[in-house]
């Protein structure tokens, strides 16, 4: 058999095989999921990853340590979006994705701090065809993360956490014993001293912590109510982590306490704030801007995200939650009126990061201004603190009654 004859046989065999190879390749491509978009939003304590698919994906999720990672396994997926769409920021140190052998792909989230997926589900796209995979993460203590890794029930490469549209974990576990939980947040702390008294040079962080402890004691005296502090000593806690602590411990109400300073030293009195994407006035806007710089003081990078990214991260406060926040703020003002000095127009709103819990009614209370000598004197007076703490606890009780909230007997 001549060499030319063999070459002809091989040539015609290839002509016969090429269409089969093309068909097989096209079939494999059609069977692969297509991830056509991705986005990520994160700060130091929370993060959200969103990946859009042409079809509904099945996935599994598990954790690894050293380094701390959340691993999402998928069927074979073609990632058809730019790498720049999933640039790691905030909580995420690295985000990688790709194929893992035949018929399998994987997304790996490497985290700066131990974190848990509090939401992992597939949702239908609202404005287009297809589905999106949404992973929400929150920091947790290292010991809890170690337990999470050690108690995973493995079946092959799958974990006991099945990602088929089910919620993974609980962002806000049910309160123990049915108590109504209130998070009392003492503003500032640690390296972030906050404002300073005009006369005594007292630090805002010390004023707020002393008042927070007093308020928590008085709230705990209300039947069916249990209060806890987001910080119990002179420790720095980021604004985002304060929100996470409140939600993870099941808070139903969040009260953040502050005592700022102003250039206009004649302005004095208490003010109650709720969150809004637009400030009610220049004073509110300025205060929110200064309070939001708290993380920057401690060296935490704060990104000014575009509006759509901010919405992805926090789903900004739901209307129902915001309505309850306003109701609580109104109850505080009603309790304070005629009892302590209030600023003009004491109900205000602005974009305070510490009020960003989407499912916990939240207020920020400026007790007064350390830049005003009269306010400073009161803010450092234990008797005045006790009076205001009593009035504020009364306001919480009124809020619960007017909102129809049932507490444990």
From TrEMBL:
It catalyses: Hydrolyzes the link between N-acetylmuramoyl residues and L-amino acid residues in certain cell-wall glycopeptides. Gene3D superfamilies: 2.60.40.3500, Zn-dependent exopeptidases (3.40.630.40). Its EC number is 3.5.1.28. CDD domains: MurNAc-LAA. It holds the Pfam family AMIN. Residues 243-397 form the MurNAc-LAA domain. Keywords: Hydrolase. PANTHER family: N-ACETYLMURAMOYL-L-ALANINE AMIDASE, N-ACETYLMURAMOYL-L-ALANINE AMIDASE AMIC. This is N-acetylmuramoyl-L-alanine amidase.
